[in-house]
Design goal:
Blueprint: E1 6-8, H1 14-24, E2 28-34, E3 37-44, E4 47-53, H2 60-66, H3 72-85, H4 89-95, H5 101-118, E5 127-132, H6 146-155, E6 174-176, H7 195-202, H8 210-216, H9 221-233, E7 237-239, H10 276-289, H11 294-298, H12 306-320, H13 331-352, H14 354-363, H15 373-378, H16 380-401, H17 405-418, H18 423-434, H19 440-453, H20 458-470, H21 474-487, H22 492-501
Antiparallel strand pairs: 1-5, 2-3, 2-5, 3-4, 6-7
Helix pairs in contact: 1-6, 6-9, 8-9, 10-13, 12-13, 16-17, 17-18, 18-19, 19-20, 20-21, 20-22, 21-22
Length: about 500
Amino acid sequence: MNMSLKGNLRDHSLPRILLDIKRKGVTGTLSLMSSSVERTIYFRNGEAIFASSTSDADRLGEMLLKAGKITVQGYEKSIELLKRTGQRYGAILVELGCLTPKDLLWGVKYQVAEILYSCFRLDEGATYELQEAVSPSLDITLTLSTEALVYEGIKRLREQGEMGKDMPDLDMVFKLDDDRAHLLRGEGAVVDLDAEDRRIFSLVDGERTVRQVIEEAHASPFETMKTLYGLAVVGVIVKREAPRGENGETRDSRATAGDEPRGQGDKNPSTSEVDSALARRVDDFYQRAKDMGPDEILQVDEKTGPEEIKRNYYRLVREFHPDRVYHTDDKELKGKVTVLFDTITKAYRLFQDEEKRREYFDSLLRPSKPPSWKQSQQSPDNATRETLLTEMFQRGVQEFKKGNFWGAADLFKRVTKEDPRNTKAWSYLSLALSKVPNRLKESEEALLKAVALDPLNSEHLTNLGLIYLKAGLNMRARKQFEKALKLDPANKQAKQGLEQIG
C-alpha cells in the first residue's frame, strides 16, 4: 500500500486510508486509537463490513436508546439481566420484547454505521494500525461501498478543522471526472446525493471557483464545502488545471487580488518566514473572539442586510482562511486559524437563516442591575428577563444535543454574563467548551466557577477531573475524582476516572 501499516491521522487522512484499502482489496482490520478509546474497522476485499468500539457510548443499548428504539425502562431492565445472566445482549432485548428480531438486525447495522462515521471525527492525534488477516466470521455485515461510507462520513463532520489539510482552496476550480461519474448515476450509483447536494454539484462546471460555488449555492458555506470535499475525495470531481501564462508558469484560476501568495516550488517556509503581520492579526482576533458573540464576530446587528453579512463573512474568510498558513510549521498558529475559521463560519451559518437571526437578536439582553427581592416579584421586566434567560439556556442545551458546541457555548456564555450565579449555566458552558478544540483551559475556568458556587456538588468535581484527564494532567484529575468520591462514594464516573489513571 502507499501508506505505512502504522501511523497517525496527521500524516494520512482517514478518507484516503479507506480508499487506499479498497484500491488494494485488503482483507483485515484497521484499528484507530484516540485517548483511551479504540475503534476497529473490519474489511473484506477492500470493503468495510463491520466495526467495533471500546467506548461505552458506542454500545448497542446506548445506540438503541439514542435512536428511540428502546425505552429507558427497557434499557435498564436489559442491562440488569445482562449482568445477571451474561447472555448475548441482542437476545435479551428480543426476549424482553423490547425489540423484534427485525428491529435487532436494524439496530446492529445502525450501531456499526454510527461507529464507522464517528471515526471521521477523530482528531489528528489519533493513530492507526492496519493488519491484514483472514476474513472474519461475522453474523451481521454491512453492504456499504467505501465511496458511500467516505462521502457520508465527511458529510457528518461538525467542524471545518476536521477536514484537515485536504480542504479545498477557495480559488480552486473543479470539474466532473467522466470516468467516475458512474458513482452518482445509473445502476452503478453508490453515492446518494440529497437535493441540496445535487444543487451544489450542478454548480461544478469547470469554470466556477469554490468561492463562487459557495456564493451561488444558497446553502451553508460549511455544508457546501463538505459536499465539494466529499465529491473530490471519492473522485467524482477533480481539480481543473490552471492555464499557463505567457511566461509558461501556472497559477490558480481566477485568483483573487490581494490574496496571500502561495509557497513557491517545494519550499516549506519556517515560522519566521510567515507574514508576521498576519500572525499578529490572528493572535489578536483569536484572543478577542473568546468573548465575542457571533454578531460581534461578523460586526452586524439586527438591521444588517444579507448582502452586508455576506460581505463581512467573505472579508474575514479571506483574512483567516487556513490556506494562508498551510505551509508554516507553526502548529499553534495553524490551530488558531482553524478555530477562527470555524467560529466565523458558524456565525455566518446562524445569520444566513432569517428566523434564527431574528431569534438570536431577540434573545440578546441588556445588562441590568440585580433587582431587590420585592422588585423581582413585581417587575414584569424582570419576569421577562428571567423567561428569556431560561429560554436561552434551554436553546443552549438543544444546540449541545445537536452537536453545535460553539453555538451552545455562546448561549451559555450570555446566560452566565447576565446571571453570574447560575451554577448550571457555568457547568454546561464548561461541558460545551470541552468539546471545542483548544478550549480546555476555558472549560476548566467555567467549571471552577461552578465549583465555587456549589463546592459540595460531586458532579462538578468529577467533570473537572475529566477535563484534567483529557489534558493529560493525571495528578490533578486524581485529586478531583477523590474529592468527588468523598462527597458521593457511589459516583461511577469518578471511579472510572481513577481506574483509567491506574
